[in-house]
Amino acid sequence: MLKLLSRRTCLKKYPLFPRCSPRINRFFFPETIDGCILTVSTKARAAHTKQLAIEICQLLDKLEIDSIICLADTPCAWRAQDHDHKPVVRALDYLAENGISETFDGAIEVSLQELQKFIVHLYWLQSCCTALPDFHLMDKGQSIVGHICKYGNLHLGIISEDVANSIDGHLANTKLVVMTEKC
Q1: Are the CB atoms for 30 and 145 separated by under 8 Å?
Q2: Which of 1, 37, 152, 172 is deepest in the core (most CB within 10 A)?
Q3: Are 137 and 110 in contact (CB under 8 A)?
Q4: pLDDT of residue 129
Q5: Residue 81 pLDDT > 90, yes or no?
Q6: What is the pTM for the complete model shown?
Q7: How far apart are CA 66 and CA 140, in angstroms?
């Protein structure tokens, strides 16, 4: 299930969300204890995206996170950029079918049950719509912050000690691989 939050409400409730104002050269990213880039071993782009989504959901389930909030780091409508690439068209249709208007620039709270589908569509938007800002993922407890990059990897920042102490054990139970090099 997708739940919409205004940008203002989201930032008031979850002040650790990354944000930037390039015009005035102001940037904010929360202080993290640790971080890593996670990926999966697949060859085809579509299979990679699907497997990444499955594994992220498994990791969040093990961390007992039941939903994720997603917000762009700058105010920008989710459906601001039209595209003719079929996966992007499907992603834009998915957003429209879930009540996201052409002007909505707020946050989307995604339940764990819907997250796999959402991540696949988010990847295609981030990968192909270069005019869109970066969309960041955060749990309600503000213990992790993540971003799925255009290469289909999860850049994960760990904010809380509890997650920092347990993440390695949980990662071992997934097919997520910690990248040793940059994207």
Answers
A1: yes
A2: 152
A3: no
A4: 86
A5: no
A6: 0.94
A7: 9
